[in-house]
Amino acid sequence: MPESIAQRVLSLPLLENEELRQLWGDLFHASAPLKMRKDFMIPILAHRLQEQAFGPVGTPTRKRLERLARESSATPSSFVSRARLSPGTRLVRQWNNRVHVVNVEGSSYEYDGTRYQSLSQIARLITGTRWSGPVFFGIKNNKVKRGVSNECL
Length: 153
Description:
By secondary structure, this protein is an alpha+beta fold. It is about 50% helix and about 15% strand. The chain has helices spanning about 5-10, 15-30, 40-55, 60-75, 75-85, 120-125, 135; strands spanning about 90-95, 100-105, 110, 115. It has a four-stranded antiparallel beta sheet, with helices on one face. Helix 2 packs parallel to helix 3 and helix 4 packs across helix 5. About 10% of the residues are buried.
């Protein structure tokens, strides 16, 4: 990314709301939505700055993003967990007095010398019961219902 574009993108969080709204008007030739929060405006403005500098997203990238969006709506937990875990990340969980280590490898996970497509497969293998892999490995908290904490269960 050229230095000036990188500097402009990095400076966005430092701008006041009114400055962001002015930049929005300059970039989109329209007023920013009145109730749009600063933390929503910044990534949109950053994208627009990059789009003006480098051109729009190409067809292959757009198709991949559309495919990922479809997959994420079909299986949100697996998409979210993979989106947050970089290759090389190591997940460690102790279960029944044994330490279990999972290595994140691109689009799969390695556990005990075997590759798996989901953390839930590995969690089931370890526990013998159906578990959400992201919850089992502490990546995603299990939602607490009606004020009952997990510690009370």
